[in-house]
Amino acid sequence: MPTLHEGQRQRKAAIVEAATEARARWGCPRGNGAPLPPDLAAEARHVATVTGTPEATTCPLACITYADPWVVEVTRAVALAADLHVPIDEQLGRDLTRVDLAALSALKKAQGDAWASDEKIREQKREQERKAARAAR
Question: 0.90 cut: is pTM over it?
């Protein structure tokens, strides 16, 4: 196994330290009951707005990491169906239920909302670039 050079060791140590700090600040993996710091609470509110989900009291990704097996099953089926062009019910190996359809609708809405948000950010950047170009003339 190759050995790490000193610079690699320092980068690895910095990454591990940052991850440890983030885990502690977010209360990962499942929360420690303490309220989130204001900046992280604002981030959790934003995630809830974009995803249409309840506001997280811990890392918003905890619900993905520790999701109910059904959520994992449906999410994985959607990803595989998109990548492999195989119908979702075939990926699941069963007929879709009303709950499955509601989940798929929520996923589709979240994807659309994320795309719209990204498009708004891109347009704001384009406008800033246009203003900068006009100012440089």
Answer: no
